[in-house]
């Protein structure tokens, strides 16, 4: 057996920030070397960040990624880090002749092995996911290799992310080709309950490949996505050897014993049937003997699991924290109504960036209850937020002097005046506007376009109302500080905001229950209709009340219909008419330094 | 030779409206039968409309599509239309076992042959486009057949849309399998200058297949897309035999002489190498002799080509007309500033739905010039629009009494007050709000979020400023009425709106030129940067001034960055966190009839 110490760099890159990500790679490689690792593995496309979206279709960006990788190999050696083997993801290029429908420049979701100043091996993802949040047939062409490198006498294979999830392809070839360790860089976004699915998959693939498996995942918020980390090393039997924490950066170091490769193993490339209609070429390399730095043995590490509210709450806080930081904001602003949605949103924001950077505006109208202001003030005092009071009655009157509005139009006007006040204060002072709508409201259209939905980030848009209450109670029970918890010295949320009946307070005596079904019924039904895409017949067969099904489907479909009628404001499309370029994430990458 | 009369039903379906589309199919089949056609061909996915987006992932929708097709076969026969052969697109299902990443239910972008009450043949698109506006790896699994049916002794093959654009696949098999005619249903969106590319492609494929080719395209606006028709029949030499007009529904009828199929041609399925790593199965069927109704010969028909302004203007008018109609609106509303962008937008709207359904609001501020109101009034009088004057000064003052704003924040406030007034009037009276921004402004971020960008449809968002002027002059030169031109009795646009210097009038003496480069330089550069995705070095090499390149790239990237910071308001995502369902187009399809 060969003893290998492997380090998994569960890290948080920023999309497009080639310079910043490269600096982080050097820093974490140094930490891994100092821990005595033979090998350090970074997440998928670490050098560019993930997902890069349409930026990958710009030639100059792909060239910059490839150049950055090559510079990195040299720089690591120059900085005394040439000895440790480094596996890092980047964007490469396949060099195919252009054809209709192939992504411009034929980019690759690539990974490379760097050692002693050189790029020793390159590979690319073979299975391109194109479901859920993934659009990779739009962006990449598929890889067709499995690199296996010999490290101190043991064979180590490299495969990328989705290749683990699909049958066939490079991972299916590992057992035949023979390897003692399979390392897999990933950028796998958080979903509720995904952790166990992922671990089961990793364990199964390790058993199939007959070798240890090191799974390294990205961590951090990137636009709408949250990556949760949860990196893991399993043995050939699938049993976890080491597992990292979730939602935080961590260098997970594990000592593994790997079988020595047979002396007679073939050294040249060889082709294998990949059992998916394609052929995978195994490319072999041998590194000069790696002599790691002296360091104590890696302590056993199996991070504690989080219970469900802690998991969800951590994800929400991380999402806000990284959205603010990666988009160059220093503070946030939101409207406080005294209700539970804005109270929880403010608490998440204060936990994410500190209460001194959370600005709240109380905007009572003629229909606001007395407790709307008093509950909001209670929250401000509990948390030490930056508050401001702006009554909206004078502005609403000025509008109503010019145009006559009734019913829903008049209700919407109030929500829009509030949205405009927040946007104006954002423009004037540079705060990011957070919206406070929950998933139950948004799904059923209980929200005003350009009103309460106006803002840059919506922390609880994926949280059903019943979970809003659950998380609020859970948060009030936590004591002290942590990665995702600020120490407010007491429960941060006014109990009255949790207990009182929900109301939008846009007309006298209004209650949510006048417009929506009871939230416990509604949330169960939304889960089946929105998450699982069940049709009416299926919903009724699953036990939902037929009348409720008809009513809620109507609410959701009309809300989606209206969102379609009023899409996000004009987008820029290349090709005149007809073709839609997604907006590339250019916030950390510029064509010019001007 | 066999004489066949083929009818191409260049028609305008509505996404999700299975009932309405089926009724239209019956009506147009009757028209084709009355013209004496043996065969009528409808566009791709005609029965469901195209694109259906995430609606296709709902099981009940796919089931409804399949059921509707089968009912249609019966209904055609019952209505005395069983004799004519009908090729129609719909959504089918492949019946594959579920696996990770495969679209739920394995839907097919299918087409079927209906004859004498039965579904005689089924096929599905093999090449799934996943670039530009197409996301078909998300929605469909690929077909693997080429149906060839014998019609009065001639062999007719069916292939779908993208299969024509890609090398290999079903179309590459036609020559070997032998067919006298290839019919191709399409849903191919309009792009400037695409017409000739398409005709060249059709001609080339006809020559490769060695047979006549009938290309049927959808027509009409559907959300952001515009389909332009331009259906065509070419001979085996690629020369056009008949060609339909663009942007209008048309039944294109052509008489073609097709070689009789050999008596010894194989009748069972047979497998062919598709030259793309897959195998295509040819499935043969023979129809009983089709006896068309008596009718005079099809007159020769090669529609006149449109010159460029007429082409673009027709597309714009069709886009507005169908967006209004398909989304259930009866009228539109927009702000008139006296400038050329809102003047052209109003004119397009009046040409699309008639001036009596176009509501305009003049919203002068303290910074508005005198001519802003007088030019707007001139436009109203030339066209007979429904106008209203709402000065915004009182409302702006009410805001500024509550919060202090300076510079850009104060300018944005004015734009937002106008946006809110339009949205409020829309809510109160049911008009669709049109925005008036052009592509040059939007690309460079010369626009206010929730202000002038607030609205449901943006008619000129794809039109650069220099083209806005060109189209305005062109429109003023047109006389009389047409499919896309209302007869206003004179030039509809005030010459002063065309000639005067552009200004946003949000501060005293403001001019566009103070913030933006001259529009002729800007538009040429935007074309290379936005449409062609050229990087800075490429732009300079292409002859653009280096300083201008740096400035414009910065403007565009910052604008895109800001659009990313403030995305469209919260979306509904299934899977809690991490996964994004696109909003399905449910405006014409409901789970319930409630």
UniProtKB/TrEMBL annotation, chains A, B:
Catalytic activity: deamido-NAD(+) + L-glutamine + ATP + H2O = L-glutamate + AMP + diphosphate + NAD(+) + H(+)
Keyword match Metal-binding: no
GO biological process assignments: NAD+ biosynthetic process
Positions contributing to ATP binding: 335-342, 436
Record: active site: 44 (proton acceptor), 44 (proton acceptor), 125 (for glutaminase activity), 161 (nucleophile)
GO cellular component annotations of the record: cytoplasm
Stretches assigned to the CN hydrolase domain: 4-258
HAMAP family named among the record's database cross-references: NadE_glutamine_dep
Name of the protein in its database record: Glutamine-dependent NAD(+) synthetase
Function: Catalyzes the ATP-dependent amidation of deamido-NAD to form NAD. Uses L-glutamine as a nitrogen source.
Species this chain originates from: Spongiactinospora rosea
Molecular functions per Gene Ontology: ATP binding; glutaminase activity; NAD+ synthase (glutamine-hydrolyzing) activity; NAD+ synthase activity; nitrilase activity
Gene behind this protein: nadE
Residues that, per the record, bind deamido-NAD(+): 412, 441, 562
Compositional bias (Basic and acidic residues): 577-594
